[in-house]
């Protein structure tokens, strides 16, 4: 129960931004209520490894209650926020209840955007949640199984094609992982089809993959993808997605499975705050990440758009959301103590993208790494950032097993195989 006179902070979303805000306020003289429609925090940078059979969901997701169990002033509510009344300082829950606040932190994240073609999602799922990852994993595994069944029963020889739409970090990582599955991980498991002949195609609308990286790293990334057997198609716009095929410009390409890895749209909650949002639904915020005209409301992470104190646009990365959450908690504590707030400054700790076994690219300031060195650094950093010793140990064990044996542990298909 809240103590009389204590200020209440309501945090919407248990992703990196919301979680790190709650952690920053743990033990402070304030009541904190964290609301999320999921009971767990997901380490999104490794979602693609769940989708591509390396890891299981429990290895990258941790219950929010467990993470915050030591914070006696933090309550976790499993519910969905459906409305925000900024004037009345309350949020509405799907269950029909209202929760009042003195401070509000909106960190509900983002989903994939289909640029006005939401009907494509049925055939080309994106990757933002554990449910997305298990859905993609099922589709990828079914593609191999159904190709084997058709070949065995002499029902035809349909091409075993996979398409990844989007050449950003997620697209590059998934394409490399699918190629590795086909060329190495399951190449001895099927008797009738030759999985090594599967086509893995990556389509990117801009002139190069990993466009946010320096050109030399983009070039290295494409080279490493092609070494794995991925067909990289740049300057290629997908104009239609249907069952078992996609259209690239005017050409139809048959596919067994498609993954959507481009386009981001902020949570619909951004449109409930009474301000003008950008094309991606992101909310422009003040330097301290508060809402203009409402200093008690903070919008952080993928839901916000901001230039930091150096005038640099803050990227939509987990590292940025963590830093924003930490500073938001500190600014709320400063308000309670009567101290001035601090503006947000993004500390760029580098960027990395893995492409496959022994392949990755990384940049840290002026430093550039590719190949095995970048891959090893990527692995160490991601294990370190995982929450909980058990998850760190489990993920490291799975990676070592997969590295030395080529086998993957999460080769399970749930549901009907049709």
Please give a structural write-up:
- The protein has 418 residues and is an alpha/beta fold.
- It is globular, with a radius of gyration of 22 Å.
- 43% of the residues are buried.
- The chain is built from 9 helices and 25 strands.
- A 6-stranded mixed sheet has the order 5-2-1-9-21-20, covered by helices on one side. A 4-stranded parallel sheet has the order 13-12-11-17. It has a 3-stranded antiparallel sheet with strand order 6-7-8, with no helix packed on it.
- The model has no long low-confidence stretch (mean pLDDT 91).
- It has helices at 16-25, 47-51, 64-67, 130-152, 169-185, 215-227, 318-337, 371-385, 389-405; strands at residues 8-12, 31-36, 40-42, 61-63, 74-78, 81-85, 90-93, 98-100, 103-106, 110-112, 161-165, 199-203, 230-233, 238-242, 245-248, 251-254, 257-260, 264-266, 283-284, 290-291, 294-299, 304-305, 351-356, 359-364, 367-370.
- Among the domains are: 8-37 and 79-112 and 264-337, FAD/NAD(P)-binding domain (3-Layer(bba) Sandwich), CATH 3.50.50; 118-262, FAD/NAD(P)-binding domain (3-Layer(bba) Sandwich), CATH 3.50.50.
- A hairpin with a 2-residue loop joins strand 20 (290-291) and strand 21.
- Helix content is 30%, strand content 25%.
- Helix 1 (16-25) runs parallel beside helix 7.
